[in-house]
Amino acid sequence: MFRNIVRFQSLYGHMICKVCPKKELFYSTAAAERKKFYQDVSISQGEGGLFEINLDRRKLKTPGGKLFTVPNEALAIAVATEWDVQKETLKFYTMHLSTLCNTALDNPTQRNKDQMISAALKYLETDTVCYRVDEPYGLVELQNNEWDPVLHWIENRYNVTIGSSSNILGPEIPEATKDTFRQHLKSYNFWSLTGLEFVITQLKSVVLALGMIDRHLGVEQAVLLSRLEEEYQIRCWGNVEWAHDYDIYELRARTAAGALFVQLSSESSTVKHKLMQD
Question: How far apart are CA 78 and CA 100, in angstroms?
């Protein structure tokens, strides 16, 4: 059996959160659940230095029929962990890293890097932290107190102007700001962009996503900031406790998985220790 869950979690456990069941939004053609059909999980290095996932003696493949390969050992171990911790039933909706790998490998929308970057930058025009309300006063104050520091951080970090607005059209983002972010995102490889786009869609925010990737924000903080208005309404009117907990734990899990995917897919070196043992 795969025996490196503890070692892996000790290295990357700060990025892993409780996973709650919901079907993945990114590419996956697999059924939501399936009876487990293997006993052992291992990784091996194949052609071109790429790493493969083995279920017993069978090589894992993508929904599109391609050989499932990842660019480095760290990501391979993370994916193998997802498969190894499954019990009698495979719950594919909890396997976010595997799904993101499938998206990168099969590229079902057939987009290139420039198209992915353009899609990500469109979120700047509707960014969560840029849309403000005029009332009630309590929410206005909360948005100013919680969102302004993050907005100021990213403007200083990238030397850009973003701003905020209570206008339904949102703030007008300068072309120079878009160009700066476009150049920055070009430094990401295709796999990392896949993960970053996933984080942006979860948080509905380029600002919060980059804050997390740059480690200015933690997972829980970024998720809370993305749900600020909802949390304010809950504070005022109460909530259905189990539904609130379900939603927030799920969003944390998906956001953490996306950020971890960016980190691991950017890893250039392999893990030095022999972590896969019989």
Answer: 12
